[in-house]
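Risk register update: the risk of archive-format incompatibility is retired. Evidence:
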Amino acid sequence: MKKALKILFVAVFVCCLVVYMCGLTACDDAVKEVYASCCQGDGMKLPVKFEKAWAESHGTAFKTSQSLESIAVEVNKFNKKGEAYSARVYGDNYIFIEKTLNGGDMHYYLVTRTQSGVYAFTSLWQKFDFDGKIVSVLVPYHFLQIQKNGSSAEHIYGVTLKSAYKTTASPEETAEFYKRKNLFRVTVLNDAVYVAANGYTLEAVLKTIDNEIFITFNLQ
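Archived output:
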């Protein structure tokens, strides 16, 4: 009986130790930096003071007491050899970040504040199924008015094709967003922006309804 109790005690102790160690390590996907990667092979570490951060498939979710404005200030002060950074706050939920390399290559990143108060750091590329193949599409999320009901980066990517979203951008502003990448052939035709990429063309149609602008994305 004593032997059985001893074995049970050891088993309980080991289980408690495992749980404790998981709390100290990455059992909950906890990470020590807020980082996002870009599908073009680039990556960025966000200069932010955070209470907790955890990795997700689209980037890093984190909790912080900093405001969007103060995070943007830190990004604009960020100094790294061979790289230049520009951050701008959009509305109440976004920081849009441009990272430019010495060679002129530019990469986009986004900080999003969700309704739950959790922040997410991601790129602006979203994957879509196009004619049976998966393509990566650059989406100007910071121009869109989408409810951020989720509590993590996984819920940021809510754009679906052929759905209309309120936008703060004009056709010209939308076109400029894609032109600055030097990666696409961009054409503006009336109220539609056509973005020719490798293997597909993104069509962004903008319409004004009751003094509000809506944008719809489609692939061709």
